[in-house]
Design a protein that fits this description.
The chain is built from 8 helices and 14 strands. It is of the alpha/beta class and 319 residues long. The chain folds into 2 domains: 1-40; 52-316, 4-Layer Sandwich (Purple Acid Phosphatase, chain A, domain 2), CATH 3.60.21. It has an 8-stranded mixed sheet, with helices on one face. It has a 6-stranded mixed sheet with strand order 4-3-2-12-13-14.
Amino acid sequence: MSKRRRKRRTWWNRLRETAHLRINRLIRKILFPIYKKLGVTSVLRLIIPNFRTVTKSPGGISFVGNYHGEVRDYPVLGIVGDYGSGKREAYAVADMVRNEGANAVVTLGDNVYYETGFQRLVGNLYGDFLQTGSFFPATGNHDYTEGRGIALYDRYFDFLRGHRWYSVVFGDVEFFLLDSHQALHHPDSFEQQREWLKNAATNSTATWKIVVVHHPPHSARSRSQHEFRFPYEDWGVCMVMSGHDHTLQHLSIDNVHYVVNGIGGGSIHEFEEILENTEFRLSGEYGGVLLECHPEILRVRFMTISRGEVYGFDIPARS
């Protein structure tokens, strides 16, 4: 197939995706008064088990991730958050991650926003990474409340075998992905995840240990989730990455880097306050974060689809 024809097909597919989403939203708007009157959140609740129910899940499973495509001088890991909108900006972020040579993708939650299915909102963007074992998602609150519910999340990401909090290793980097929405609704799950994280991170031999928690412990939108302010430095964690707030932020607190990255394709948020220890912050643009895994440093690059790299910092290897 010619390059021009591929472009035409891509354009046509995205046009159909946009039309589908707009029709879906219109239907939801029309049906909402009926749902409210009947006391039903959605007709899908009647036919899909556990729809919009914050069920508890097993956790603590460990994975070794694969690298997608050719690893050149160093592996590149793409980090995207709050991307599951199906909007053209979500596609643009996916294209940016791919064009920057990402060898794997880790998400920060909210993989879906609308009831249009995981294939439309995830597979059409990052399906090639998923097929090669190079895509690992974190749960967000919208993964429970939209996208046809958490039961379909478990079904679509079947390789997780129902585990919604787990760890994954990419070379010298290990991610510890929590399920913050489940933890906030079930105190026993919160304690179980905290204890698992403490032991797993402390015993990890990875050079860089990164925690992923959808609800940010620190954020300049008055949405900081204090419950997740764990003693990360004591556990050897160098960075905590979150979504939920649709901004881009970097804070440095007690020798730990806190990154908020929720600009993967959803709506855009504005800041509500200025936090101490803020190194960088940005709102009003779409993008993501790239991690370059060099032998002695982990380079963190903040990227937008309109301007490329807008900020960066290095985390040296701990001796």
